[in-house]
Q: What sequence folds into this?
């Protein structure tokens, strides 16, 4: 970006998704090999120290607004999937809330609310204030079929939703 030659920062892992924790640290969704589960790695670029923090994770890795933390989905069992927080100061992992059944796609709104889907409807939850997901009213909800990804703009005024055709 500054006219310098590009270089590879990770060549030893098969990374499916990532989120920058800061300018020199990354949380990575690393694809499992030969049927082994996907894993959450924390990579310190200055030293190339790679720490595995969880296995059997979902693809949604995000910075948590107004916190020095990231979130990820941990598929604890076939029936229990949880959104967890990695505190970047202490490196401790804690549970935020359960996902909707079988749903791994989430996004954070700037005010600290989470948004997710059950595949055809959108739901929100403020984890500091609520324990239950609430359905969002969508004007033309017939377009929401097979929702697979969600993204929120930095200002929180736009929502991108990937749906099936």
A:
């Amino acid at each position: 970006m500054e006219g310098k030659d590009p270089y590879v920062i990770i060549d030893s892992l098969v990374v499916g998704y990532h989120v920058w924790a800061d300018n020199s640290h990354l949380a990575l969704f690393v694809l499992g090999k030969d049927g082994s589960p996907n894993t959450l790695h924390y990579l310190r670029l200055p030293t190339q120290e790679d720490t595995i923090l969880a296995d059997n994770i979902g693809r949604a890795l995000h910075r948590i607004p107004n916190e020095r933390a990231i979130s990820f989905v941990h598929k604890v069992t076939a029936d229990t999937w949880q959104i967890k927080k990695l505190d970047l100061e202490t490196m401790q992992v804690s549970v935020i809330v359960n996902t909707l059944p079988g749903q791994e796609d989430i996004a954070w709104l700037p005010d600290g609310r989470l948004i997710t889907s059950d595949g055809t409807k959108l739901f929100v939850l403020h984890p500091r204030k609520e324990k239950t997901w609430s359905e969002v009213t969508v004007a033309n909800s017939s377009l929401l079929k097979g929702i697979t990804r969600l993204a929120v703009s930095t200002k929180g005024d736009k929502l991108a939703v990937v749906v099936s055709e």
Remarks:
- The chain has no helices and 14 strands.
- The CA atoms of residues 108 and 117 lie 13 Å apart.
